[in-house]
Structure formats: C-alpha cells, structure tokens
C-alpha cells in the first residue's frame, strides 16, 4: 500500500519542474521504498538460473563455479554497481594451494562488488553469502538452491535496492561490500582468505551480515513458519543486537528465533558459516539461517522447493538491518569485548 501511495505522489508531482520533482521523490522515499524493490518474483527468476543444472552444483574450482561467478559479475555490471578497487575487477582470486583440505585443490575466486558511502566511505559493512556448493556425485547434481543459492540471490536483490537508493540521491552513508565467498562447503576458505587479505582494513569493517540458507522452512517450524533464526547478533556487540531487534520490530513481522544462538546448542552453527571468520577478528556479525531440512546437502535441494514469499521477507529484513547500520549516526562497535 505504501508503494502505491508513493507512486501516486510522484505522479501528482510530475507537473512541477524537474528539480522539484526529484526533491519530492526523495522526500517521499523511505527505506521501505527501496526494500520494496526486493521481490519474490525477481528472487525466483535469479534462483532458477543460479541453481540450474547447467551450474553443475557449483563445486569450488569447477566450470560450474566459474559460470556462477560470471553470473554474479554480469549482474553487478548490468546494475552499474562498481568493483571495489579497480574498474570491472570483481574477482578476488584465491590460489589452489590455499584450499589445503580440498581433495582436488583448484584455484577459485571470491566475487566482490561495492557501493561507496556518501559520508563515511572508509567505514565498511560486509554482506556475505557463499556462492559455490558441493558439485556432483555419481552423475547427480547438487543444485544448492537453498544452500546457498538463496543467500546469494538475496544479496543481489539487496545490492539492487541500495543501488536504487544511490540513483535517487539516498545512497548509504557508510560503504557496503557485497562479498560472495567461495569454498565455504570445504572449510570456510573464501571468508578466511578475505579476512587474511582484506580489501578494506578490518579495523574499519563495522559489521558482517552473513546469509546462508534463507529459502526454506525447517521441519521444527512447519507450524510456525514466519521466522528466521538469528545467530551471533549479541556475541560481540549489544549495539548491533539492539539495532537488529529495533529494525525487525519496525519493518518486519518475522519472528526472530534465537534457539541456535545458545552457547550450549550442540549444532554449533555459530562456528559453521562464513561470518565466523569475521567474528574471530572481533567484527560484530549476524548470521541469518532457516535451519536444516530434509534436502540439506542432497541433490533434492532444488529451486522449486523454495518459499519465495518468505525469502523476500527475510531478504528485506537483512536489507533494513544493513541500511540502519550504514546510516545511523553512531558506528556499531564490538562493545562487549
Ligand atoms: Zn551453506
């Protein structure tokens, strides 16, 4: 309803001169205006491509992973979202030798894109999701639609939402790095490589929001599916945790479920995805996760099983949280250390 009202206002204003027009568009644009560019339909279109059989399960170092990396790079180029350092250089290459525990080590790359902050460009928020998966076995393709196609395409839509704000003169005050990491499944390699070879100094890295599996409903939540598991938000920073809760209260009807945030939870998810490499460097993190399900790490993790409306809500929550971290006056710090 809000979006409709905004378009009506823009149409009403269209009789005025161009400058006034832009002013009124800005005045009426809220974070929700940009969040509303994240749609279930676009997430679905991306994911059917990204988790297609032609990607062959996107195993680190294979042709399928290279094709997936190209998909991401082409998206950012089309959206005119820049590479962080050098024009059109969206890859952070990682040599084969780095993947020490891989059975057949091959070179790979993280894929990176960047939106420069308008007021505090040196302060960086890192959004991360791993884009490769476990490949093929006995001729069967492990599509990894949820793991982590869901996080990957959500990041594309989040990047597009921020870029829409940039084009409307409302870009984020702090900078945002979109970090698509490689080698997660074989040992969190891409995120470790990034934190050992950071493009921007870690001391200027304000927070990391990591998304790994946000397209499904875990069996234990079937009765109450309007949720997202949050892990780690209060471990290093009360400021981040409070911000996250405030944003969810204001912009989302999702239940934030902290079951797996318990120190004594035997699953130890806090240590099991890419955010951990940031957390161990004392950078506050939040890990967004739907829990495991019957198709986890199986060839049946396919895009037809994704809950796109729910994924849209989760992606919007992450967008709003990143928006607030990027724009609030005070910088998030590891205030619990
Ligand atoms: Zn994963």
Strands of the biggest beta sheet: in what spatial order?
Answer: 1-2-6-3-7-10-8-9
Summed over residues and divided by their number, the pLDDT gives a mean of 93
The sequence of SSEs as H and E is HHHHHEEEEEHEHEEHEHEH
Largest beta-sheet characterization: 8 strands, mixed
Quickly count the domains.
1
CATH homologous superfamily caption: Zn peptidases
List ligands, each type once: zinc ion
Shape descriptor: globular
Q: How many β strands by DSSP?
A: 10
Number of helices: 10
CATH level-1 class: Alpha Beta
Class computed from helices, strands and strand pairing: alpha/beta
Radius of gyration (Å): 19 Å
- CATH-defined architecture: 3-Layer(aba) Sandwich
Question: What does this entry look like structurally?
Answer:
This protein is α/β, with parallel strands linked by helices. It has a single domain, classed as Zn peptidases (Aminopeptidase). The protein is 37% helix and 16% strand. The strands form two sheets. The chain has an eight-stranded mixed sheet, sandwiched between helices. Strands 4-5 form a two-stranded antiparallel ribbon. The chain is globular. 48% of the residues are buried. Bound molecules: zinc ion. GO terms for molecular function: metalloexopeptidase activity. Pfam families: Peptidase_M28 (PF04389).
Compact description:
The protein has one domain: 3-Layer(aba) Sandwich (Aminopeptidase), CATH 3.40.630. It contains ten helices and ten strands.
List keywords for this structure.
eight-stranded mixed beta sheet, disordered N terminus, Aminopeptidase, binds zinc ion, about 15% strand, globular, single chain, 10 strands
